[in-house]
Predict the structure of Cysteine desulfurase.
Amino acid sequence: MAFETSVSLKDCKYTYSLHPNVKKYTLRDNTFAVTKVGNYELNRLLEAVPNSGEGFLLKIIFNKDLTGFKINITDKSGLRLVNIFKNPENDIIQQKFYFLMDSLVEREIFNKTEV
């Protein structure tokens, strides 16, 4: 999957796009780690029950020059893409995803538009 300036996850209520004011230090302040190739990566386990270790892995990656990003939600192993928005039983996980993304919107990392 290539880096994009706008991402819309399947069945998600919002499209997230790159905020023009995003800075490298803002990503570092929000727990993005620098990878070996210089990209910025954030990994979060979206769990229905806190500290259970059971849930889906959210991975957000920005390229090193901050011109594009990727958002993936996978199973815990990180190998299979998962659609958390399709099943109504994932309501708590969806709320946690939206809460995290809203905090990144507030910090001018993303722009959010309703689909």
